[in-house]
Prior knowledge:
Elements lengths: L7 E5 L2 H4 L10 H16 L3 E7 L5 H7 L5 H19 L5 E6 L1 H9 L15 H23 L5 E7 L2 E4 L5 H18 L1 H9 L4 H7 L8 H7 L6 E4 L3 E6 L8 H5 L1 E4 L15 H15 L5 E5 L9 H6 L1 H19 L4 E4 L21 E3 L6 E3 L1 H12 L7
Parallel strand pairs: 1-2, 2-3, 3-4, 4-6, 5-7, 6-9, 9-10
Antiparallel strand pairs: 7-8, 11-12
Helix pairs in contact: 4-6, 5-6, 7-8, 12-14, 14-15
Amino acid sequence: MKNMGLKYYRFSISWSRILPNGFASHVNEKGIGFYNKLIDTLVKNDIGPMVTLYHWDLPLSLQIQYDGWLNKDIIVPAFAEYARLCFSRFGDRVKYWITINEPWCIAILGYGTGEHAPGRRQNPDVEPYLAAHSMLLAHANAVSIYRKEFNNNGKIGITLNSDWCEPLPSNDPRQYALNKEAAERSMLFNLGLFADPIYKGDYPEVMRETCGDRLPKFTSDERDLLLNSSDFFGINHYSSNYGSPGHGEGDTSFFADVNVTMSSDPTWQKTDMGWNVVPFGFRKLLQWVHNRYNPMGGIIVTENGCAVNEPSKELATKDEFRINYFRTYLAQLHEAIQNGAEVNGYFAWSLMDNFEWAFGYSKRFGLHWVDYKTLERVPKGSAHWFSEVIKSNRIITKN
């Protein structure tokens, strides 16, 4: 990191590692020591730590005994205790905090499709909203504790993930109008689900109309706690799709509520995850966030990058696909800034190849290639390219 000239490093703390049973009554001091060493080494090398409190690893007892994010009466105060412990132990050196990473993935993929932990899909039209509601309240309570008890000029926010949904082109003006409406509905359901309560005080109106009583309600105190509970707008972005009206008949799930069909342009490149490479979507997303929320502290891009098939060290060192991805996406970010969007930070995902959830070690997002047997780490072409971007503060046009 120091050789690359990185100014900040974003990482997460494992709740389970420092509070094995989920509650602050039993602290694993070895876990605390691990993070202290990491933070101290970063600071010693003039690299600012940006710490995420929750990147999807929930202490098992909270899930088994209390139903995890479905039980807001238990998990919200438990998360608050965990956050307070982290602020007290690490807050003297950590000045940037993220409460929860990509709550959409936890709620929708964890409680809707069952692709992610805890793998539930029994009530896909109800449980995703309950889990999302709990996470919003957990975030707001953690922020309140930080601001009241640890006011040390640090900043705290949440990181939301969002693709961009572009209206499917059509020569029929009436159809295009419907496609445009569908694309906006997709943005409100997927990003507005979390951003609207934080920046506007409640879920988007289209969600209230569609979901009715299935969508939980905030008390006036909860609304006050949520409103403006982020010092910056953290956003993770990877891809874009075309949107048009319609979804599978008979489906009763979050996606049926959204009622949007996603499609692609056959000319778009795809990453090794099968995600579309659409640089202009990045610009449009940043401008949409700026125009709808005008977030205090601006936008920090907390993840952007791509997976590339790199079975060998030799292939990885060339890395032209990833360099071109970063070059084109950063150019669109720059254009968004020129168009008025306040973007104050950017993190490439990721520093090195790592564990990609259900895909295991098969998908490589890293700027450094990792030999998983020996743990050798080799800078890819993108690591050298990105280092030059940091040092020169401009987009390097040559690989």
